Structures are given as structure tokens and as C-alpha cells.
Sequence to fold (66 residues):
Amino acid sequence: MFLTADEVADMTGYTKHNAQIRWLTAERFGFVVSSSGAPKVLRAVVVGRLGGEHSRKRGEPALRLA
Fold:
């Protein structure tokens, strides 16, 4: 469901949470911040943003972020 901490670091190029949040905000990737301060990014957001397809069952609602 969510990217791992390593995947977020790989995608953003940063290991510190504040820098990751700045990058995600600048690149307009939706995320939430966990209680530890780490950004949590849905895998479906990244796959959809990069033009890939993810497995979604027929009739299942699509996630849409503004």
C-alpha cells in the first residue's frame, strides 16, 4: 500500500524526512506525515503519476488526489 522508507529515499534522493517532504511537495506527490515525521506515500499515487498500471479489481473505485 505505502512505499517503504527505502523506496521514498530512492525516489526523492534524500534520507532525511524534512528533505523528502520538501521534494515531494515541490514535485506535487500526495503524502501524509506519520507520527515519527516520515512522509508516507501511497504506491498507487506513484504508479499512477509515472504512467504505470497497477492492479485494480473491476468495479473498485479509483483513488484520485487533487
Q: What stands out?
A: The radius of gyration is 12 Å. The helical segments are 5-12, 17-26, 43-49.
